[in-house]
Amino acid sequence: MLFADIIGQDKVKSHLLNTVKEKRISHAQLFLGEEGYGTLPLVLAYAQYLMCLNPKEDDACGECSSCRKVAKYQHPDLHFAFPVVPVGGNEIPISDHYIKEWRNFITTNPYGTYNEWLDAMGAGNSQGIIRVEEGREIIRKLSMKSFESEYKVMIIWFAEKMNAEAANRLLKLIEEPPTLTHFFLVSQSSEYIISTILSRTQLVKVTRISEDGLFLGLKKKHVLDDDRARQIARLSEGNYTLAKEFIASSVDTQQNFENFTQMMRLSYMGKMIDIIKWVDEVSKLGREKQKVFFAYSLRMIRENLVINQKQQALARMSVEEENFASRFANFIHPGNVLFLNQELDKAFRHISRNANAKVVFLDLCLKLNRILKLNI
After folding, report:
1. What is the pLDDT of residues 265-305, one digit of tens each?
2. N or C: fewer beta carbons within 10 Å in the chain?
3. What does the alpha-carbon distance between residue 240 and residue 208 come to, in Å, rounded to a whole number?
């Protein structure tokens, strides 16, 4: 993958390019970012640039023998470890058992999510894990001399899925790797990585894609007019995965609006019977639609704050949304907007990680009841 293929993230791209040009590449780096921000694509492009035989000023050449192999993820000095599920029988699973599926997955969907990877493996209800056997395999691979490149690169995707035994086995190797060997760990949740691994890695934080960056990326990768691309970029909160869901799904904006107004009204009134009925209904939506609903809710909170602050010219709402905001905006103010955003974002994260939807929505409504009644 080339840096030119990545949506936005110009600041991170520049940082990574400079580490290579200035020959100050940390041997162990932790790339931390939410799904949809482009964390894995950045690492893939970084690895290709690092291994390119004829690098340009701001990207790999894309044409040399090394680039062609890296682009197919078949370079002998580029290695991957990722969460896997049992393959059947008594054999303990390692990444190599799924390398064909993995190459196809990141080729067709480099912004793919953990749940999409589980589907690609046919995991069913199983959860992917990086086991101690994977740790042994990583040590074996990296103990060998490089075949073609000056560098050896090990990319560990969803490093938080390493169990403690696997992580502990890799400690010494991560701390003192062979010469010109680099570990690139990719993670969403560093709190689930053991502290001794964290202390041995240099953090590269990948934040959400800028609205302008996402807009340009959507225009480049999808057939969208300017208005639609801008609307999706704004709704998606810097998350390309979510933007693709807006494009591909038949999400009914009217349904999101009705669910948002119901959630706010019922939460404010605090009538438990009615809240539970609403929670039962919204919990029947698919997980992806629930995530889109939370993204929509975050946008509505922001737009209502804009109205509350008498900045109507900056608001981006439909006529129906504006009519609702004329009555609702008084409840969204600087005294509670941060708490509202925190709780909605937390609910989005819980749903993304397969938490029980009824528990998430009920807990959210109870918290909204208190937050909406806070004074300015």
Report:
1. 999 999 999 999 999 999 998 888 898 899 889 989 999 99
2. C
3. 9
Residue with tokens 């890296």, as numbered in its chain: 70
CATH of domain 3-207: 3.40.50.300
Phi, psi of 264 (to 5 degrees): -70, -45
Query: What pTM was estimated for this model as a whole?
Result: 0.72
Residue 107 token pair: 């080729």
- Angstrom CA distances, 46 to 13, 59, 170, 315, 373, stand at 8, 9, 22, 38, 48
pLDDT over threshold 90, residue 209 = yes
Specify the pairing of strand 28-32 against strand 78-81.
unpaired
- C-beta separation of 128 from 158 below 8 A: yes
The CATH number given to 251-371 is 1.20.272.10
Which residue is it, tokens 């699973």?
93
In order of 79, 165, 179, the CA distances from 162 in angstroms are 16, 8, 24
Contact call for residues 81 and 87 (beta carbons, < 8 A): no
